[in-house]
Amino acid sequence: MEHSAWHEAIKQKLPEHYFRKINQFLDHVYAAGTVYPPREKVFAAIQTTALEDVKVVILGQDPYHGPGQAQGLSFSVPQTIPAPPSLQNILKELADDIGPREGHDLTAWAEQGVLLLNACLTVPAGQANGHAGQIWEAFTDAVIQVVNDVNQPVVYILWGSYARKKKALITNPKHLIIESAHPSPLSAYRGFFGSRPFSKTNTFLASQGLAGIDWLK
Q1: Are the CB atoms for 58 and 52 separated by under 8 Å?
Q2: Per residue in 32-71, pLDDT tens?
Q3: How far apart are CA 107 and CA 102, in angstroms?
Q4: pLDDT category, 2, cuts 50, 70, 90?
Q5: Which of 41, 56, 75, 103 could cysteine-pair with 114, CB 3.0–4.6 Å?
Q6: How many other C-beta atoms can be found within 10 angstroms of the C-beta atom of residue 88?
C-alpha cells in the first residue's frame, strides 16, 4: 500500500504489525495458487480514489473469482470481459434511473470520487468468499471509518445484507446512507430495481454544494 493520506489515516486505526500481517498473507496466498485480482491491483480502490476526493462509497463483498474479471474495484470488470450478472443489473438500474451507460468498466467512477471498496480485497480462483474472515475485514472496516471521519459529506451505497451490516461504522451525521437489496439476480427484484441510488446520490451532493458524479462517463 502506498504511503498516502489513506495510509497515514488507516495507520491511526490499526496497529503497525497488522500491515506486516497483510504483506505476509499476500506473499503466502499469491505463492500458493491463483488469486484475484492481480497483486498489483489489490489496493486499487484506495490508489484510484484519493481520500480527499471521496464523495461516494459503494461497498462490495469480495472480488469476482473468474479469470480476468477482478480489477480491485468493487463490481467493476475490464471492458474486455463480459459483465457479470450483478453488474448487468447495476447498469440496468442506472439506465432506468439516469440513462444508459456505454461500457461496464467503472474506473471512471473511481476517478470521480466513488470509492469502489470490497470488504475482502482478494479471492482464490473459483472460490467466492474464499478469503473471508482471514485478514481483510479489519483493514477495510478501518477504511470505512477513515471516510466516516472526514468533514465533507459522503454518500454510502450499501447493497445487500452484508454491506448493510457496515452501517454501524457510519456514525457521522453529515453522511447519507442509501441502502437496498443486492443487485444479484437472486435479490435484485426485492428492492434493488427502482431504488434509484444514482440520482439520489447526486441530489444529495448538490444539496451539500458538491458536484455530482457523472455516472454515464
Answers
A1: no
A2: 999 999 999 999 999 999 999 999 999 999 999 999 999 9
A3: 13
A4: low
A5: 56
A6: 15
User: Any idea which residues carry the catalytic annotation?
Assistant: 62
Residue with cell 472480488: 63
CA separation for the pair 109, 155 (Å, rounded) = 14
Query: How remote is the C-alpha of 211 from its chain's centroid?
Result: 20
User: What gap in Å lies between CA 85 and CA 185, rounded to an integer?
Assistant: 7
Other CB atoms within a 10 A radius of the CB of residue 141 amount to: 16
The answer to whether 212 and 205 have CB atoms below 8 angstroms apart is yes
* 159 DSSP β-pair partners: 180
pLDDT digits 0-9 by tens, 7-28: 999 999 999 999 999 999 999 9
* Beta strands per DSSP E along 134-193: 155-159, 176-180
Q: Longest C-alpha distance within the chain, in Å?
A: 49
Residues 6+ apart with CB under 8 A from 165: none
Q: How confident is the model at residue 1 (pLDDT cuts 50, 70, 90)?
A: low
Q: Which of 71, 89, 73, 108 is nearest to 194 (CA)?
A: 89
4: cell is 498516502
- At which residue does the C-alpha cell 427502482 appear? 194
Positive or negative torsion for Cα 166, 168, 170, 173: positive
Report residue 79 as a C-alpha cell: 471492458
pTM of the model: 0.97
